[in-house]
Design a protein that fits this description.
Largest sheet: 9 strands, mixed
Shape: elongated
Helix content: 25-40%
Distance between the termini: 108 Å
Strand content: 15-25%
Radius of gyration: 27 Å
Oligomer: single chain
Low-confidence stretches: 1-6, 20-31, 455-467
């Protein structure tokens, strides 16, 4: 067989690419950093020349006061490299120095994080002193072979009656909390943070209002909940790259605890703000907008983040993740909500109509689903769930007739039963924030609610027959 013929020009190009890659590695690892020059600032995008860095590589930009702003490579075109800053651009001058930075793709982790509140860079936001962390974890995670993931086989007690009994969550499941603004997402997250049976709780507050950070930690999470929790907070006024890094850091911290064999509860508020930050970055570097202005990269990076949660391989722990998703205008067909429902293992919908009626948490069982119910429940449990859903669906389908008094009792036995049990159903769904509902108690309440009842008029008929 004849030996393959190589084109000399192609071979030279291959050698040039290998040399450039080696220069990049040496430049970022051996200390011989190849600096660049800041040429242009457009909005949030920095354009530099002279520093050949791969996509996602960290860098620093010098300011007027000789301080440095962290940035990350988000694109390039020809000899120009596009960077996105992780902090405000105050003090940046033309022709500023741009140098590569080491260690940007890893985060420091350790048990010392428990009980602490940090920002997207891992810096403490509380007054508990500096962090002493020796371990490191990859910021973007390491993919797990899907055939090596442990299956979801056991229910997780989250301390919320409606979820425990009618929407059971499995250990290692990824669930979305869909709701509009002001319907109680953060309150429900706080309940699950305090009451869920988990070794470690990781909370990512991504792009929310700054005042809510302290309110969540002190008023909702509480001192007892914070002791086993790690909070990563990046408010809405932070740059989009900082918000993206906060979500990635929260997931990386959860992964590290999972690899240590712990059962982790990951709460991220919110996935929508993470998508908004990705949209800002994508549009800044010239990506074409698609659905409601979201560039295609957003819908590619959502599953990349969500798939990092879940059960690990045999011998490791689990990450049960809850992601809040803001439905703009209470529209469940919002692009992010629609994309997340297709990726997640279930979703819990919070209804404004139910919240306005004074029932909290305002969980809409008809619109909610848990896709692991067949794996973590028995036949009797599933039958009770179906029975409860039938009662709620029957009442809601006749709600208008019932409310105006147009429905005549006795017309349909199913509707009569739904009307009779409706107060008990509302009492079952409602739960005080300060009172947990263990899994065993929730199942007993569901069994009592859906138990078959005897016909009330049976004694009267028997009396008439005897007469």
């Amino acid at each position: 067989m004849n030996a393959p013929q190589f084109d000399p020009a192609e071979r030279q190009q291959r050698l040039a690419r290998r040399l450039a890659a080696m220069q990049c590695v040496l430049g970022t690892e051996s200390g011989a950093l190849r600096e660049g020059i800041l040429r242009r600032v457009v909005g949030l995008t920095l354009e530099a020349s002279g520093c050949r860095l791969p996509l996602g590589a960290p860098a620093r930009v010098e300011t007027r006061s000789h301080h440095w702003i962290d940035a990350e490579v988000v694109g390039f075109s020809g000899e120009r490299t596009f960077l996105m800053p992780a902090a405000d651009l105050q003090g940046v001058l033309p022709e500023a120095r741009v140098i590569p930075r080491r260690g940007g793709s890893e985060v420091r982790v350790g048990r010392a994080l428990l009980g602490r509140v940090i920002d997207s860079n891992g810096q403490p936001l509380d007054s508990a002193g500096p962090l002493r962390l020796n371990a490191r974890a990859p910021l973007h995670g390491i993919p797990i072979n899907p055939l090596r993931r442990e299956p979801i086989r056991s229910p997780l007690d989250v301390g919320v009656r409606a979820i425990n009994a009618a929407l059971p969550i499995g250990r290692g499941q990824r669930v979305g909390l869909l709701a509009g603004s002001g319907v109680g997402k953060s309150t429900l997250l706080g309940m699950m943070t305090r009451y869920t049976e988990a070794d470690v709780v990781v909370v990512g507050l991504i792009g929310e209002r700054g005042r809510e950070v302290r309110e969540f930690i002190e008023g909702i999470l509480g001192e007892s909940g914070l002791r086993r929790a790690v909070v990563i907070a990046t408010p809405a006024d932070r740059p989009p790259l900082a918000r993206v890094h906060a979500a990635l850091r929260a997931t990386a911290v959860a992964e590290w605890f999972r690899d240590q064999g712990h059962d982790v509860l990951l709460l991220m508020d919110s996935l929508t703000r993470y998508a908004h930050a990705l949209r800002e970055i994508g549009l800044s570097v010239g990506e074409p907008p698609t659905t409601r202005g979201y560039p295609p990269s957003v819908f590619a990076r959502l599953p990349a983040l969500i798939e990092r949660a879940g059960n690990g391989s045999r011998g490791s722990g689990s990450i049960t993740a809850f992601y809040t998703i803001l439905t703009e205008g209470d529209d469940l067909q919002d692009p992010i909500a629609d994309a997340a429902r297709a990726i997640l293992d279930g979703h819990v919908v919070l209804s404004r109509r139910i919240a306005d009626s004074g029932i909290y948490p305002a969980i809409d069982l008809e619109a909610s689903v848990s896709r692991v119910v067949p794996e973590i429940t028995d036949a009797a449990w599933r039958a009770r769930i179906a029975r409860l859903r039938q009662l709620i669906s029957t009442y809601n389908s006749h709600r208008d007739l019932i409310s105006i008094g147009a429905y005549q009792r006795g017309s349909d036995p199913r509707v009569d039963e739904a009307i009779e049990r409706w107060p008990q159903i509302n009492a079952f769904l409602a739960q005080d924030v300060s009172v947990p509902a263990p899994l065993a108690d929730s199942l007993r309440a569901l069994e009592e609610l859906t138990a078959e009842r005897r016909e009330r008029r049976a004694p009267e008929r028997s009396a008439e027959a005897s007469a």
